[in-house]
Automatic annotation (TrEMBL):
Keywords: ATP-binding, Cell cycle, Cell division, Membrane, Nucleotide-binding, Transmembrane, Transmembrane helix. One of its GO terms (molecular function) is DNA binding. This is Cell division protein FtsK. It comes from the Bacteria.
Length: 704
């Protein structure tokens, strides 16, 4: 309340300091010192002073600098000790032995033996040293005295003064006298300053080797952005919590670095191979990725562990702190308007690998599968590849976008087919699109040898929709599912099995894989499998296969939402470093506007494509009449042959027909298939009767 307001009621004084604090915003000012006991105030003051950040920083600094001196003294003493004993060679031999490098162990052992032999010789020489020293002293003194006397005689002859004979001798004596005086003067201060200089030396050594506990370091140095040095890697491995590793590294001491290859700069991080001591498996290290990352002062996603060809070795790629969160450059498709593609020899500029090298994906005769959780960049990654290939005018696209919000709309007048939408009807169309792909594939397979086939790319984005489609056709065959009668599944399998050789290729994008929405046979039919962030290791296994995941591929460790556009790619089409089962690619993001501009460039390379927005099912067929046509003049025909002839008549319409379709169409007509000589047949005469008897509306029947 302000001072110029007169209160109309009597204000109750606060009953205690706590009440005062609770009722007024400036609580501390109202605490009356006299009311708080002195010991409580002292305790609070001490606690405040002790816990104050400045006090803690000073404390940390004191401990740190003290530890530098102690650590430096320990390091210097050990160095001095090791220079006089074979301890160093023994330690290196032990480290090599633990690392399983017996050749190096023998080499260090031999060097140790040689050191011992030399030291023995030096000691034996030392036994004769006093005699040699006395003799040397006698001879030296005599020679010096004689030399100075001779010099004096020559001087005296030259100056003709007899006194000059002893002049050099006297000069030498005088010099010695001055040296003694200087030493006497300097000795006192030197004795006082010497220990200080030694301490400063120890401190410098300790500081250089960071011989202080991590918690004493200034906050900036503790932030985890430290450069990766051999000792940091060895310590991180030591602290992994794997007992045989800890013991082995303890045995090795400083020589633990012998486990490491050279630490090489690799893109926005470093790469190092670690040869594990015997008794430690690569899987144990892989399973402790988070701990290893934290020991290295990094986040889990900044450390990648793969298995190189060398046995018992893990390859660590450690990102510079925060580097993976920096965006990568723009796609060459966006920046280079003259860029063209070549389906056979070219490779799509997809993004960058972790080393910062361009990640290029060849697409020649490869079926593709991209999976990932929702909204991680699956469509963008798939579309980027299609946009690149669109720069080869020979490529033909049939696209079913089963989300249908316009992500693929720029392919209008570029793709021959563009189905967009999420309904069952769209899934049915996508299935029929694939079946037509199968028909085209079969036509190509039967073409004369040497025929050149342009690439026909069938793209199904959100393919899980097609697998989950519950609708059945008239013959009761399901469109979705993974049975032998499931139409999408069977068409996808047929293309996977035989499409490659005639350039009929299936690219699928699917979300959140399960066995139901991405059947095993279909995921394994794709040559190139790539995955964005996933929810679990079992999903990673579905997306990329067991082999890739066992070899270190871990899309489930990518961060949902943060690692958008980052793919783990296994299998064919991309250069994967020898021995690795996968490669992590950060893709260039091409947004919808940029994609539209690129698609326009691709359209300009073609004569104009008329895109079918829905599948043209052609003329309405009359199956009963068609069956009568293919039976022709024969009295009866085997049902198998009827099916074959129907397929020849219109493969687009009849290629998926089975005996069930025939049975269903003929049911109730009086021309149903029957057994003759133990085999199912259809009779011409009965068909003719059925055709003659049917009502006029039935003759314009729709698809069976
Ligand atoms: N390479 C990339 N780099 C950075 N961000 C990206 C990248 N790719 C995609 N994104 C971001 O992720 C968002 C989703 O992309 P996209 O639609 O391709 O994902 P999706 O996995 O297909 O999603 P949905 O769940 O709809 O299938 C984009 O709007 C964009 O912001």
């Amino acid at each position: 309340m302000s001072n110029n307001v007169v209160p109309l009621f009597k204000e109750e004084p606060p009953t205690s300091a706590t009440d005062a604090a609770a009722t007024t915003p400036d609580a501390p000012a109202l605490v009356i010192p006299g009311r708080v006991p002195w010991w409580a105030r002292s305790r609070n003051a001490i606690a405040w002073a002790v816990t104050h950040e400045r006090t803690r920083a000073v404390g940390r600094g004191a401990v740190r600098n003290g530890m530098y001196v102690l650590g430096g003294a320990r390091i210097t003493t050990r160095r001095a000790w090791e220079s006089r004993t074979p301890a160093r060679y023994e330690r290196l031999a032990r480290a090599a032995e633990v690392a399983g490098d017996y050749e190096a162990a023998m080499k260090w052992d031999e060097q140790g033996q040689r050191f011992r032999a030399m030291r023995h010789k030096r000691r034996m020489d030392l036994l004769h040293a006093p005699e040699a020293l006395a003799r040397g002293l006698l001879v030296g003194t005599g020679a010096t005295f004689g030399g100075l006397l001779l010099l004096g005689i020559i001087l005296a002859i030259g100056t003709k003064h007899v006194a000059d004979v002893v002049a050099p001798l006297m000069l030498a004596i005088e010099t010695i006298k001055w040296i003694v005086v200087i030493v006497t003067v300097v000795w006192g201060p030197a004795m006082a300053v010497g220990p200080l200089l030694a301490l400063a030396g120890f401190w410098a050594v300790g500081r250089k080797r960071q011989a202080a506990p991590n918690w004493t370091l200034p906050a900036a140095d503790r932030s985890g952005g430290d450069p990766i040095t051999p000792s940091i890697v060895v310590k991180a491995m030591h602290d992994l919590g794997i007992a045989p590793m800890r013991t082995a590294i303890k045995e090795m001491g400083d020589a633990g670095a012998a486990m490491l290859s050279l630490i090489k700069i690799a893109g926005c991080g470093v790469e190092v191979d670690v040869t594990l001591p015997s008794g430690v498996t690569t899987t144990e290290v892989q399973n402790r990725r988070r701990k290893l990352a934290e020991n290295l002062g990094r986040h889990e996603h900044e450390v990648f562990i793969t298995i190189p060809p060398a046995p018992r070795t893990v390859r660590l790629w450690i990102a510079d702190s925060g580097a993976l969160d920096e965006p990568i450059g723009r796609s060459p498709l966006v920046t280079d308007e003259t860029l063209r593609a070549d389906y056979i020899k070219g490779r799509a500029p997809w993004g960058q690998d972790l080393r910062g090298d361009a990640a290029l994906l060849g697409l020649f005769q490869l079926h593709l599968l991209i999976t990932g959780l929702s909204n991680q960049g699956k469509t963008a990654a798939l579309r980027a590849l299609a946009l690149w290939l669109a720069m080869d005018p020979r490529a033909e696209f049939w696209i079913a976008d089963l989300k249908g919000v316009g992500d693929w709309r720029m392919f209008l007048n570029l793709a021959a087919v563009l189905i967009e939408g999420p309904t069952d009807e769209h899934c049915i169309e996508a299935t029929e699109m694939l079946e037509r792909g199968v028909a085209e594939m079969e036509r190509r397979l039967q073409s004369p040898e040497g025929t050149d086939f342009p690439p026909l790319i069938l793209i199904v984005d959100e393919a899980q929709q097609a697998f989950m489609c519950p609708v059945k056709d008239e013959a009761k065959n399901p469109y979705g599912g993974s049975k032998a009668t499931s139409r999408y599944f069977m068409a996808a399998r047929k293309i996977h099995n035989q499409g490659r050789a005639v350039n009929v290729l299936l690219w699928q994008g699917t979300q959140d894989p399960t066995d139901q929405n991405l059947p095993k046979l279909v995921r394994e039919g794709a040559h190139t499998r790539a995955s964005l962030a996933l929810g679990s290791e079992s999903q990673s296994r579905m997306a990329l296969g067991d082999k890739a995941v066992d070899g270190g591929a871990a899309p489930h460790l990518l961060r949902q939402g943060l690692d958008k556009g980052t793919l783990v790619v296994s299998s064919a089409g991309i250069d994967i470093p020898a021995g690795q089962s996968s490669i992590t690619v950060r893709t260039h993001y091409i947004d919808t506007d940029e994609a539209t501009v690129i698609a326009d460039r691709a359209k300009a390379l073609r004569d104009g494509v008329d895109t079918a927005r829905t599948l043209d099912r052609g003329e309405q067929r009359d199956p009963l009449a068609d069956i009568a046509t293919v039976v022709g003049t024969a009295t009866r025909v085997l049902t198998q042959d009827v099916l074959k002839r129907l397929n020849t008549l219109d493969s687009g319409f009849y290629n998926t027909w089975t005996f069930l379709n025939l049975k269903r169409v003929l049911e109730g007509t009086g021309a149903e298939p029957y057994k003759s000589d133990g085999r199912m047949v259809i009779a011409r005469e009965r068909l003719a009767r059925a055709l003659a008897n049917r009502s006029p509306e039935d003759s314009a029947s729709g698809p069976a």
